[in-house]
Design a protein that fits this description.
Length: 70
């Protein structure tokens, strides 16, 4: 459910990981932008049964983004 929700929201999961346990979603890793980070959080919040989302994801520096997603 989590991977599907993230994909539908446009959040890349190449460097973003997540688990759901007892209604809590934990996301960690790297994202391309603050917008992608917010999209991932909103997508996780919409999963049925989720009560809380903890996100520990950083944004790739602009000079490194091209190397990873070209």
């Amino acid at each position: 459910a989590l991977d599907e929700a993230l994909s539908e929201a446009g959040a890349r999961t190449d460097f973003l990981n997540g688990v759901i346990s007892q209604g809590v979603v934990r996301l960690w890793g790297m994202v391309e932008s603050e917008e992608e980070k917010r999209a991932a959080q909103l997508a996780a919040e919409r999963i049925p049964g989720v009560k809380r989302v903890l996100i520990d994801a950083d944004v790739f520096p602009a000079d490194r983004r091209l190397r990873f997603w070209e």
